[in-house]
Amino acid sequence: MDLALIGRKATKRQTQLRAKVDAAMQLVDEMIFTLRRIASELRPRTLDDLGLTAAAGMAGTGVRDPHRGSLRCRITQEQLALDSERSTAIFRIFQESLTNVGAPCSSHAG
After folding, report:
1. Model-level pTM?
2. 21 close to 7: Cβ distance less than 8 angstroms
């Protein structure tokens, strides 16, 4: 809001100032979008709205193993009664597991 106020107060002759304010406002908007995306990835609303099973299912959609192709993940449809902290922790572990499976291996066992 302060940037918008500065932009409105700048005169037409202060084109450099206006350009800087516009660039700063765009950067702030992009940062807000990125923070929302990161927060959503860390704890998606699906966890609250539909539960851990649905959130895990959505996280697993489209994950591919670079060596074997598409992955299949079987998740029970049984709802687990977990508090917010535990469901977030389990979701993050599942999400990290998917990341590790989808990541190329750095070494091969002989």
Report:
1. 0.53
2. yes
